Amino acid sequence: MRGLPGPITLKKSDFHYELPPELIAQEPLAERSASRLLVVPPEGAPFADRQVRDLPQLLRKGDLLVFNDTRVIPARLFGQKESGGRVEILIERLLPENQARAQIGASKSPKPGGRIALDAGGEAEVLGRDGEFYQLRFHVDDGLESWLLKSGRLPLPPYIHRDPGIDDDERYQTVFARELGAVAAPTAGLHFDDALLQTLREQGIEFGHVTLHVGAGTFQPVRVDDVREHRMHSEWLNVGAALVEQVRATRARGGRVIAVGTTVVRALESASRSNEAGDGQLQPFAGETQIFIFPGYRIRSVDAMLTNFHLPESTLLMLVSAFAGKARVFAAYAHAVRERYRFFSYGDAMLLFPQADDAAKGQSDAS
Questions:
Q1: How far is it, in rounded angstroms, from Cα 218 to Cα 345?
Q2: Over the range 99-108, which residues count as b (16 or more CB within 10 Å of their CB) and which as e?
Q3: What is the pLDDT of residues 216-253, one digit of tens each?
Q4: Which of 36, 168, 194, 229 could lock onto 224 through a cystine, CB 3.0 to 4.6 A?
């Protein structure tokens, strides 16, 4: 199928870089759009150190920004097994009948039939296990989604070494979040506030939305040496007909489709691959994806990408390397380290453009 990786060998260690721990952002900035923005044009043009609030000057009238409108669930719970051992639960996905798919942290794995007394009240019953995920039924005094909104705790990423505070309840959600279901924020979207969105509208830049519920697998390390052997966790997405029409209209008028975050790229590429005609054209799609994008895969669905800086050896770093070229991305990361950019979820951002040869091909494809 067009776009799939060719017969290349990539090692996990090929995507390692050294990051001083103090560059990992532990808190959000006071203003969302005050984050720095590293502009990475195709190879041959220099990097530019800007700010996210400069986006209206960096984009063009007729461009389409595509956001992920997923909303983070307060998905972290604590409790105690019948044996007395402490348990941490991270809900991966809500299921019917007050059930959920979850990861469990405990000194000894709970067995099917076991019950966990929850600190917030009620119990979680262990129904079974599939690999690292458990299926739980919650015995609580409300529907599980409503109960979590009252009783769950926000699941900040593991590299943020503090408990979530009141400010995180607002700042670890995008201002356009509306579809509840993620356990991690689509962090590129965290840089947008209402004032920036209004300025972009006034510049003639259009907005579209997809939904991809980010799962706990986004934080799972690649455990195999050969990248091609890695298997992604499944995540649910929805690319609607309205967004597909927006993309087609943008292409027809010569505008650019700009993904706000890697989750948008994964959603659009998954929807393009779902096309039964096999021509790679974007079509509406709702369902599961396990798409894994790494160098050798040609991303066709977007013309530019706004994204945060990603963990060493992570699948997200592999995705941006596929889009902009591994050497180019790693040169940009080295620049960001030297210039003391802030990394990861609450950190700064990059505006990435595709490799020069891919940009030219994309222009040819669009004509």
A1: 12
A2: bbbbbbebee
A3: 777 778 999 999 999 998 999 999 999 999 999 999 99
A4: 229
Calpha distance 86→79 (Å, rounded): 6
Measured CA distances, 232 to 158, 200, 292 (Å):
19, 34, 6
Q: Is the pLDDT of residue 77 over 90?
A: yes
Query: How are beta strands 206-212 and 133-139 bridged, if at all?
Result: unpaired
Would you say 338 and 312 are in contact if contact means Cβ atoms under 8 Å apart?
no
Q: Hey, what are 72's tokens?
A: 């983070």
Alpha-carbon span 216 to 235, nearest angstrom: 9
Map residue 315 onto helix, strand or coil: helix
Cβ proximity of 117 and 123 under 8 Å: yes
Strand partners, 90: 76, 103
**Residue 250 corresponds to which tokens in the numbers above?**
């943008």
For 49-65, the pLDDT digits (tens) are: 999 999 999 999 999 99
The closest of 235, 231, 236 to 292, measured between CA atoms, is 231
pTM (global) more than 0.85? yes
Name the DSSP letter for residue 226: B
Res 278: pLDDT:
63
**What's the angle, vertex CA 125, arms to CA 123 and CA 126, rounded to 5?**
145
